[in-house]
Design goal:
Number of strands: 2
Strand content: under 5%
Distance between the termini: 20 Å
Strand order of the largest sheet: 1-2
Shape: globular
Helix content: 40-55%
Length: 89
């Protein structure tokens, strides 16, 4: 299934993820960018959920997690693509 991605929303999602990751992981993350690998940051299922909820709150969106999978956690960019493509309401 192909999902349309709103490029402005995606840009905002990338910014939010980069800003929220240090808060969620509770330590400094210098140089976080779209290419930052999320698996190397030791995100747990709980911290992933916390990150997604924080992005929802910050951007006032809801994320449809029906199709969410580990593949979407490769990098900040892959997570942003998923979120921007699955934001509802």
């Amino acid at each position: 299934m192909s999902t349309q991605i709103d490029s402005e929303l995606r840009r905002r999602v990338v910014g939010s993820i980069c800003a929220l990751l240090p808060q969620v992981l509770r330590h400094e993350l210098p140089g976080v960018s779209e290419q930052t690998g999320l698996m190397e940051l030791d995100l747990t299922s709980a911290s992933t959920l916390e990150l997604l909820l924080a992005v929802e709150d910050e951007l006032e969106i809801q994320i449809d997690v029906e199709e969410f999978d580990e593949v979407h956690l490769q990098t900040v960019a892959t997570l942003a693509d998923y979120v921007a493509g699955h934001a509802v309401g």
